[in-house]
Design brief:
- By secondary structure, the chain is α+β, with helices and mostly antiparallel strands.
- The protein is 39% helix and 36% strand.
- The protein has a four-stranded antiparallel beta sheet with strand order 2-3-1-4.
- β2 and β3 form a beta hairpin.
- It starts with a strand and ends with a strand.
- The model has no long low-confidence stretch (mean pLDDT 97).
Length: 96
Amino acid sequence: MAVTFIVRMEFAPEDREEIAAALAALAAASREEPGCVEYVPCTVDGEADHVLIWEQYRDRTAAEAHRNTPHFRQYAVGVLYQKMRKRSVENLNAVA
């Protein structure tokens, strides 16, 4: 069964360019993972420092594999986690 979740993060305005570059690199590499169905980072309209990442993986194993990739460690742990002011995760359950 597919695993879908949304990660919400907030960053400082002065980090905007670095965050955008890290998100672009992380998204490109994540989309190449065999178990990745969707990986879409977005900013919230009118709130450029609020990032939402829509992630969907084939199954729990694929989602866990994502968190163990070199690109996740480099860009998520090494950049995003270091710069974020807030973070929340919403696990989603498909209804149809």
